[in-house]
Design goal:
Number of domains: 2
Helix content: 10-25%
Number of strands: 26
Strand order of the largest sheet: 3-4-7-8-9-10-11-13
CATH topology of the largest domain: TIM Barrel
Largest sheet: 8 strands, parallel, barrel
Oligomer: single chain
CATH class of the largest domain: Alpha Beta
Strand content: 25-35%
Distance between the termini: 32 Å
CATH architecture of the largest domain: Alpha-Beta Barrel
Bound molecules: alpha-L-arabinofuranose
Length: 499
């Protein structure tokens, strides 16, 4: 059997985890909003038309921050269409997804719902077809107390108190030629800088995220970040990263190592931020918002130009397998490992559209396989990330070269150390030896794993709990050492409790 070794020392830390690392994303796309979170007429709908069963799963998932309303959608969005009486809101063409946008859900509806599910909003402004004026008006609408045209419109629409939206995205994927209003780095950097100036004058307390690259393979990657940050460094707090992974053909070995790619992506963006910091003589650091990430079988998507105009069409409703859940769990390990610089993460998306939660119109809602590692990591991955130096055998991948067969990270929350670990080997279990001699207070704990004899097993409406995590058993600590067995192709959570 293969073996790996991990030493833990609570004095050797990486950073405090920002809870916003466990965020998600609600886009007006497909059935994420309409017949997703919102379905008036559904037996579980509340008075505002939002599904209580879906909201319950969102709370269970544990998403402290929710990005909204896009995504590509935001680059053609007129936010004013979504406020006021529903009967007078216009129907519009959404050019991003060739869909009909009914505007039955808008800013007020979303912000009230986000509060109910316990999430802070992360609002994106349209820097595709619009710009400074729409952004500063939206911020005034959301955050200014009263006595101005936009703040009084909010009050008239039923929200007397300002929403106090702190975190804002300056557009979405503006580096992508598919984006409505796509820009060069120079054009975008200039617009983003001017937008931040106006937004900070409306509300100096906002935190602002500039668009980074849509993925690491973009031809402008690196140069884009350098140019955008050169123009905006003093005004922004975060640069965004987006990344999606899928299995190509039968190359599961590479797919299982997707977190290696995310590590490299994050580390390259950190290096670029710090380069601009040095060149510009800045003192503050720019942090990272990985505000779209997930497994997405993008190669199955026909492309937006091949869609037909429809209301809430079924778009990219990927059904996730055990293998996908192991990759998602591993991507969370990567985010935690970089908690010193990654402060925001948004699993894209929340419901139906490449999502941990699925539901049917008039029907049930259920947890996809990826729900489980996310929910457990969000619940137990809070506290301080420990420096985790895992010694593990290596294997060869086509996409990422030689990579470790296992990956792990540990988080200390005062009452427990939680180790999140994956075994990427598809055939063999792996013994993980834990050296805990630097943690004399640890006594015993538990081991939960997500693994299955069938790595392609999925959850469906008819079999919603086909794939769930299972208790492997108690974990004992003797003479400062412990040992657990990670099943072949598995995601694991080992919780070691303090005395
Ligand atoms: O999440 C789906 C889409 O992926 C988003 O709209 C876009 O930002 C990204 O390309």
């Amino acid at each position: 059997m293969q073996r790996a070794a991990l030493s833990l020392d609570p004095r050797v830390t990486v950073a405090e985890v920002d809870p916003r690392l466990f965020g998600s994303f609600v886009e007006h796309m497909g059935r994420c909003v309409y017949t997703g979170i919102y379905e008036p007429g559904h037996p579980a709908a509340d008075d505002a038309g939002f599904r209580r069963d879906v909201a319950g799963l969102v709370r269970e998932l544990g998403v402290p921050i929710l990005r909204y309303p896009g995504g590509n959608f935001v680059s053609g969005y007129t936010w004013e269409d979504g406020i006021g009486p529903r009967s007078s809101r216009p129907r519009r063409l959404d050019l991003a997804w060739r869909s009909i946008e009914t505007n039955q859900v808008g800013v007020d509806d979303f912000l009230r719902w986000a509060r109910e599910v316990g999430s802070e909003p992360m609002m994106a402004v349209n820097l595709g077809t619009r710009g400074v004026d729409a952004a500063r008006n939206l911020l005034e609408y959301c955050n200014h107390p009263s006595g101005t045209a936009w703040s009084d419109r909010r009050r008239a629409n039923g929200s007397a108190d300002p929403y106090g939206v702190r975190v804002w995205c300056l557009g979405n994927e503006m580096d992508g030629p598919w984006q409505i209003g796509h820009k060069t780095a120079t054009e975008y950097g200039r617009l983003a800088a001017e937008t931040t100036k106006a937004m900070r004058r409306v509300d100096p307390t906002v935190e602002l995220a500039a668009c980074g690259s849509s993925n690491r393979r973009m031809p402008t990657f690196g140069a884009w970040e350098a140019e955008v940050l050169t123009q905006t460094y003093a005004q922004v707090d975060y640069i965004s990263l987006h990344t999606y992974y899928e299995q190509f053909g039968d190359d599961r070995d590479s797919f299982l190592a997707s977190a290696v790619d995310l590590d490299r992506f994050i580390e390259a963006v950190v290096a670029t931020c710090d380069h601009v910091r040095a060149v510009g003589g800045h003192t503050k650091r720019i942090n990272l918002a990985v505000d779209e990430w997930n497994v997405w079988y993008q190669s199955r998507f026909p492309g937006e130009d091949n869609l037909d105009w429809a209301e809430a069409p079924r778009l990219i409703e990927d059904t996730y397998s055990v293998a996908d859940a192991v990759v998602v769990g591993n991507l969370l390990i990567s985010l935690l490992r970089h908690a010193d610089r990654v402060k925001i993460g948004c699993l894209a998306q929340l419901v139906n559209v490449i999502a941990p939660i699925r539901c049917e119109p008039g029907g049930p809602a259920w947890r996809q396989t990826i729900f489980h590692p996310f929910a457990l990591t969000s619940r137990h991955g809070r506290g301080t990330v420990l420096h985790t130096d895992l010694q593990a055998p290596a294997y060869e991948t086509t996409l990422y070269g030689t990579v470790p067969v296992a990956d792990a990270v540990a988080v200390h929350d005062g009452s427990a150390i939680t180790v999140f670990a994956v075994n990427r080997d598809q055939r063999q279990d792996l013994v993980l030896d834990l050296d805990l001699r630097a943690c004399p207070d640890l006594v015993a704990g538990s081991h939960v794993a997500l693994a299955d004899a069938d790595p392609d097993a999925v959850n469906t409406a008819d079999a919603p709990d086909r794939v769930v995590p299972h208790e492997v058993g108690a974990v004992t600590v003797e003479d400062g050492r412990s040992r657990v067995t990670l099943p072949a192709l598995s995601w694991n959570m080992i919780r070691l409790l303090t005395r």
